[in-house]
Amino acid sequence: MSDQEVKPSEAETIIETPKPVEADTYHNPDALIRISIWANWIAWLFLASAVLNFGLRIYQNYYPYFSQGAADAQTIINIVVNESYSLIFMGFVFLVLQGVSHGINILLDIYEKLQGK
């Protein structure tokens, strides 16, 4: 062998930087918290708009009956029942969105307990 220095090849000189170790998760906790907050706000927005819409429809459509005193108890019950379908539907939407919001929070709590954080 000669006294020449042996230079390592270019492939040998490349030092790979270690890749950051990521947890085996498929979710972003911050994004899930934002989704939970948005679901909560949207649920309350839907419920408030449904109650406001219900009250305005009763006032606009049936005010003449009430102002003339022509509405008896059965008429009032029929009016409220006929106009309450959208209120009932929005109530269910409210409950579903609240369930999604609380469910996400509960699942995040369970995940954090299992991870030992």
What does this structure look like?
It is built from four helices and no strands. With 117 residues, it is mainly alpha-helical. It has a domain of 73 residues. The radius of gyration is 32 Å and the shape is rod-shaped.
Topology:
Blueprint: H1 10-13, H2 29-68, H3 73-83, H4 85-115
Short description:
The protein has a domain at 45-117. 74% of the residues lie in helices and 0% in strands. It has 4 helices and no strands.
Order of helices and strands: HHHH
Q: What oligomeric state is this?
A: single chain
Number of helices: 4
Based on CA inertia axes, which overall geometry fits? rod-shaped
The SS-based structural class is: mainly alpha
Percent of residues in helices = over 70%
Please indicate the percent range of residues in DSSP E strands (runs of 2 or more): under 5%
Give the rounded overall mean pLDDT: 80
Main beta-sheet strand count, sense and barrel state? none
Query: What's the count of strands?
Result: 0
Radius of gyration: 32 Å
- Poorly predicted runs are none
Distance between the termini: 59 Å
